[in-house]
Amino acid sequence: MANFPRSRRIGDQIQRDLSDILRREFRDPRLGMVTITDVDVSRDFSHATIYISSLQGNEVLTDSVSALTDGAGYLRSLLGKRLSIRVLPQLHFVADTTLDRAISLSSLIDQAIADDSKHPKD
Fold first, then answer.
1. Which of the residues 53, 68, 74, 90 could staple to 96 if both were Cys, CB 3.0 to 4.6 A apart?
2. Half-sphere exposure of residue 28: CA atoms within 13 angstroms, side-chain side
3. Residue-range domain boundaries for the chain
4. What's the pLDDT tens digit per position in 60-99?
């Protein structure tokens, strides 16, 4: 357990609790079906960057990040009732576009392979 930093453990707990809060307690019509992909907590526990992804497209993702950012104070208060830590971090929500980039790269690779197979080898 010594090689697993406390900030990472707290980030994992924030991810679990915040996912539950979003599913059960947070109501905002702008919030689409989102997934919390990662939580990075600063070393002094004053800030937490929460990465959000959505399979519903970039417009829904942008609206969801906006809704979560607007409700960050409320979410922080709900999170504070669940976590027993001295310093509760400020929540910062960021759109996670890793999946979109991975799909784009995969299609580029597939296209390159298809183009390569069309040309005869010398």
1. 53
2. 21
3. 6-97
4. 899 999 999 999 999 999 999 998 888 899 999 999 887 7
- What's the count of helices (H) and strands (E) in the chain, helices before strands? 4, 3
Q: What are phi and psi of 100, to 5 degrees?
A: -60, -40
Q: What is the pLDDT of residues 26-61, one digit of tens each?
A: 888 888 889 999 999 998 899 999 999 988 888 889
Beta carbons within 8 Å of 15's beta carbon, 6+ residues apart = 36, 38, 39, 50
**CATH for the 6-97 domain, from 3.30.70.660, 3.30.300.20, 3.30.70.1650, 3.10.310.10:** 3.30.300.20
Q: How far is Cα 73 from Cα 86, in angstroms, rounded to an integer?
A: 17
